[in-house]
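[recover] target loaded
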């Protein structure tokens, strides 16, 4: 019997994870399927209970359940506990452990692009779950400085206090940073803010890397503006692939087939 994996959230219809993980399982020769598990909040306890069955390796968790799953797990990794959010669950003999691979995926994407985060100065725009995971990972990577900006200032201050960063005013200048990261949904297809710019790359120093964790579209309005300003850019697809690769390795104990995952992600994005 094939083992089961899937993604838990609501909505999950547009998730690229089934394409990426399905390709990874096939390339690695793992006899398992990866499905979309649409799960309203009221159904979450039953869904988690089903993960304990012997044929289930685990699951990914996405919006809006990354925090809600915490009390339903047997164990949470120290990193995920610090972040306060889980995006990957591993079933081991009926025992569920929560992990968070978002930050690790972000760091891997930076390093793949030739940008080591150590001793660099970072600004994160946004203070939600994605920003939180990235902020913890950057702190662990030994950045020189970490600033948080958010439209709701109290949220920026709360995240800054949690990770030992400092909050700066929303829409402040981007000067003085080596890397600026959009952690909001501004510019994302279907967000209602497809044309929004979360910050102004024209205020950044020459050479500042502008990162957008949004991956659909591949070039967001922010990345387009940054490119037109002559700045280096990095989109959200590599982070998505690398956080998925870390999850794959947790479930299977095997190295993730990154090239197959990249090809599948790009094909899924380009599909009509």
């Amino acid at each position: 019997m094939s083992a089961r994996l899937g993604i838990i959230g609501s909505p999950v219809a547009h998730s690229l994870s089934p394409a990426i993980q399905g390709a990874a399982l096939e390339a690695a020769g793992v006899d398992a399927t990866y499905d979309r598990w649409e799960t309203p909040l009221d159904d979450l306890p039953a869904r988690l209970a089903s993960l304990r069955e012997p044929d289930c390796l685990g699951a990914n968790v996405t919006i809006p359940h990354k925090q809600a799953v915490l009390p339903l797990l047997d164990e949470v990794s120290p990193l995920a506990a610090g972040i306060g959010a889980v995006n990957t669950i591993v079933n081991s003999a009926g025992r569920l452990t929560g992990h968070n691979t978002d930050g690790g995926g972000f760091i891997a994407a930076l390093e793949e692009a030739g940008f080591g985060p150590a001793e660099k100065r970072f600004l994160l725009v946004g203070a939600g779950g994605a920003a939180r995971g990235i902020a913890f990972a950057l702190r662990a990577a030994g950045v020189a400085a970490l600033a948080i900006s958010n439209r709701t200032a109290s949220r920026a201050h709360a995240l800054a206090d949690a990770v030992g960063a400092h909050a700066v005013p929303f829409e402040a200048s981007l000067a003085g940073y080596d890397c600026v990261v959009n952690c909001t949904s501004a510019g994302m297809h279907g967000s209602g803010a497809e044309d929004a710019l979360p910050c102004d790359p024209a205020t950044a120093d020459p050479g500042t890397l502008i990162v957008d964790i949004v991956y659909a579209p591949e070039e967001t309005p922010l990345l387009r503006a940054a490119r037109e300003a002559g700045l280096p850019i990095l989109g959200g697809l590599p982070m998505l692939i690398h956080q998925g690769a870390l999850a794959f390795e947790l479930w299977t104990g095997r190295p993730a087939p990154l090239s197959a995952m990249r090809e599948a992600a790009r094909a899924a994005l380009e599909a009509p």
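[recover] notes: DSSP finds nine helices and twelve strands in the chain.
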